[in-house]
Amino acid sequence: MSMLSKIDRFTGHMYMQGDFKKVNISPSQTALNNQIWFIKYPLANYLRFKPEQPSIAFKTGTFVHKSYQDILIGKMKIADVELAYKKILESHKFSEKEQAKGNFLLERIKKYVENHLQMLMEISGSYMKDWQVEKAFYDWYDDEYIGQKLEIVNEGSIDSYNSKLKIFTEHKNRFGSVYLGKKETYLYRKPAKIKTPQFTHLIAIAVYFQHFEKKYQPALIYVDEDGAMLFNAQNCEDLTPQGLEYYFHKFIQINIQRQQMLRMAEGDIRKLACMIGIDWSDLRHKDSNIFLSHMQEEDVKKIEEFYNEL
Questions:
Q1: How does DSSP assign 114-132, residue by residue?
Q2: What pLDDT sits at residue 277?
Q3: How far apart are CA 80 and CA 68, in angstroms?
Q4: Which of 90, 122, 167, 245 has the fewest CB atoms within 10 Å of its CB?
């Protein structure tokens, strides 16, 4: 059974020695495979990667989240959504394809925000009072794996929660894709309907469930332009207390395994690189990998040079 530590804790030396400068972990980092985690965190920090190229999916997802949250707590009106999103599109230089996708999403952006709010109304029985947003947490754990405890804080924030209803929610967006049609103009394809929650989101929900000491009911909401899909303990076994315990154990296992690799590396990122390795086909075709597609080309070259010099 998981317990949050009630005593002062300090980051383990393996996270801070030599080439490593890591002060926290998060649910989103945890769900990455080891190769992507290594590239985007230890290696990116060591090689001083440049900021990634702007991603329309990331910018739009962030905008939709903040918009529904601001409306929920009375800081924004639904009528202001389209104009605010248009300013996002105008303030960033996207690639031609990304800009085309943004233009299609502009036509649908209000509906995305409305669908998040509509689902919140449904799961709360139309009780829209007492909702709060972006609950930050900084949690330590006493759970053990391979004889070790996790020696670093887990940091993140929870999308929405209601202390009176004892509910917390995690919100995700499903955006469509764009492609060139026969007349060399971009066309929009709706996203496929999701049937089961994604692993990375279940990891996050399991961590939040622990934060609330298992006293709040989870709701995982996926939204597209047509509506919203709700997963909870009533329709998804993964979101029952037993299912969430499984995913929380995976969270602990993944992070302690990485902690052990850092310990074995003894502050030397080259040793860590040899433990993890790189699938070079992923880098050569990075545009088809959602986690690598917005890396700068010069940073890809830095990775090549780094491994050539090991």
A1: HHHHHHHHHHTTT--SSEE
A2: 87
A3: 11
A4: 90
CA distance 12 to 177: 43
CB contact at 8 A, 244 and 238: yes
Q: pLDDT tens, 193-232?
A: 999 999 999 999 999 999 999 999 999 999 999 999 999 9
Give phi and psi for 17, each to the nearest 5.
-85, 155
Residue 69 to residue 86: CA distance in whole angstroms = 18
Tell me whether strands 24-25 and 153-162 are parallel, antiparallel or unpaired: parallel
Q: Tokens 């433990």 appear where?
A: 275
What CA–CA distance (Å, rounded) separates 102 from 100?
5
State the amino acid at position 205 in one-letter form: I
Question: First and final CA of the chain: distance in angstroms?
Answer: 42
**Of the candidates 310, 31, 1, the residue with the CA atom closest to the CA atom of residue 170:** 31
Token reading at 107? 């036509």
Task: Give mean pLDDT, residues 125-154.
Answer: 94
On whether the CB atoms of residues 224 and 174 are closer than 8 A, the answer is yes
- pLDDT of the residue at 1: 41
Cβ neighbours around 41 below 10 Å, total:
16
Q: How far apart, in whole angstroms, are the C-alpha atoms of residue 35 and residue 109? A: 34
Nearest to 213 by CA among 124, 128, 141: 141
How far is Cα of residue 8 from the mean position of the Cα atoms in its chain? 28
CA count, 13 A, side-chain hemisphere, 185: 4
CA nearest 105: which of 117, 89, 122, 123?
89
All domains in the chain, ordered by first residue: 13-48+129-308 (3.90.320)
Alpha helices, DSSP H, located in the chain: 27-30, 34-38, 44-47, 56-72, 81-91, 96-106, 109-123, 199-211, 241-265, 269-276, 280-284, 297-308
